[in-house]
Design a protein that fits this description.
It is a single chain. By secondary structure, the chain is of the alpha+beta class. The protein folds into 4 domains: 2-76, Multidrug-efflux Transporter Regulator, Chain: A, Domain 2; 83-138; 161-259, Lipocalin (Beta Barrel), CATH 2.40.128; 263-359, Nuclear Transport Factor 2, Chain: A, CATH 3.10.450.590. It has 11 helices and 16 strands. The chain has helices at 13-20, 24-32, 50-64, 69-76, 83-116, 123-133, 140-151, 161-164, 246-262, 269-281, 292-312, and strands at residues 2-5, 8-12, 39-40, 46-48, 169-172, 178-184, 187-192, 198-202, 207-209, 215-221, 227-234, 237-244, 315-323, 329-335, 338-346, 352-359. The strands form 3 sheets. Strands 5-6-7-8-9-10-11-12 form an 8-stranded antiparallel β-barrel. A 4-stranded antiparallel sheet has the order 1-2-4-3. It has a 4-stranded antiparallel sheet with strand order 13-14-15-16. Helix 5 runs antiparallel to helix 6 and helix 5 packs antiparallel against helix 7 (140-151). The protein is flat and about 80 Å long. The model has no long low-confidence stretch (mean pLDDT 84). InterPro entries: DNA-bd_dom_put_sf (IPR009061), MerR-type_HTH_dom (IPR000551), MerR_fam (IPR047057), Peptidase_S12_Pab87-rel_C (IPR021860). Pfam families: DUF3471 (PF11954), MerR_1 (PF13411).
Amino acid sequence: MSARNDSEIWLEANECSARIGLSKRALRLYEEHGLIRPRRTQKGWRLYGANEIARLHEILALKRLGLSLQRITALLQGKATDLAGVLSIQHDLLAEQRERAEQGLALVRAAQAKLATGASLTADELIRLAKEANMTESNTDTVAWRRYDQARPRTEVKIDPRRFERCTGFYKHPVGLIMAVTLEGDRFFLQLTGQPKVELFAENESNFFLKVVPAQLTFASAGSDRAETLTLHQGGYEAVAKRIDEAEAKRQSEELGERVRNRVPHPRSEETLRDFLEQQRCGTIPSELLSEELAEIVREQQPIVSAELESKGDLRKLGFRRVADDGVDIYEAQFAQGTLQCGIGFGQDGRVHTLWMLPA
């Protein structure tokens, strides 16, 4: 039965487990791990209110994302419930699943219509049908829980600045950007190519976080005290940057500076951007052109981007304008019904890692 206290309803263990779909054993297990703390009546009966139910919703959402109870406990123990964050993740996950389901249904219907005419499906059509209609390639769950983890509030601790000296130096991001890590007095800073310097705050001697955006850095050594890699945790993804020496960082910076001054685009940027715009206008995702992270973002935004490009009509002219300070090539795309400014940047693997469009 439920108990009412003022305006809040409290559920006993039987009713709570029945309404949510959990066993009483699961409720006790979460309590043993310190994830929920139900009230007790004078007779020792457990009561579950709004706060406990919100935390149970949070636990179930993270279990749906594939996290173990040990991982959930490490993530949530001692922290306030972030129901808004969980709902945001669930919204993104369900929207992505719905979109992929709709794409799969469209492919199935097209295949059925073709077979009904007596024609057969090509190998390419079968491959795409197997990949999209069966929904086996999505890593949205992993990305979603990482976003959740990365967005949680961090607590700053003070560390001896001398211990941070092992982290200072230059690292090369997979997209080719140089990440300069510096110590100024007792403060720590990070600066990416073409971006302003931002301050880092310590969680411990190896893990740091930014306050300007929900992002964290992890420094790791390789058999020595000096950090050899820097992992950037942001947007649900993890990018590992390897240490390079100052001479190499200076050489790459000078090469980029020369590209910017002389307005020299990447040799494949115009062709790749043109291909991307055409495929997106037709409602397809050119995953083979994009990094894994960018492909996931493009998939999430595809309905909006496709509608925008379709409203613009045919692409009439694609003109190069300049190279931005971060190495991204800037183009102006003139369509039959309007103009967009586009940016495209390549990573070391030859795939597109940066892509954006804005009204010109």
